[in-house]
Fold:
Amino acid sequence: MKILAFDTTSIYGSVALLAADQILGEVGVEGLSSHSVRLLRQVDFLLQQFSLSIKDIEAFAVAAGPGSFTGIRVGLSTVKALARASGKPVASVSALRALAYKIRENNEKHLAAMIDAKKAEVFAALYRVSRGDWRELIAEGAYLPHDFLALLPRKGNICFIGSGVEAYKKEIQTVFGGRALLANRSFFLAAEVGILGWHLLQQGKGLKAEEVEPIYYRPSQAEEKRLSVGKEKKTL
Structure:
């Protein structure tokens, strides 16, 4: 099964091509330029390297969030358009789980994924992998950094990964000291999104284009503005 996987949830935008759970190639660009400008160019480049066309793709995988609202919309709209046109299924994957998957070799340890959500918050979750079985010990969500850290176990090592770890490194080390294992990995996620997406597809959890929804853990700026305007009107 040829899978095309996308991640546009952060500035680390990437596209990956997989044969089942085997990574054939990944193209990643770190930068502030719009995903909408470069995404399809990345797809074209990657497919050309293997003499493939979009018609050869049998399924899609996408990081549906959390992350940048604009980035998520670009990724989902692109994948939905491709899936709708081809009739191929889509696997919707959490960017947090894809991050944690990068450090899956730390078996039997706690894996903390943290994405810098700006506004002094992080998108975060805590997982544990045992013999390939994933457990979500702290639910994915938006947290104040100290609130999330307070929920973490006080015994044993914890492996941390993500832009939120870079942003709050001092706080993590102050709380956990040597028990905090800070992963040194890239933040390009399309390959991991593709592998996790393949597992979902194998379980019959592929979605139709119209069924794919973004993963948001807090309202966007536009929604916050509407809510604040609504509250002001009620007050008046």
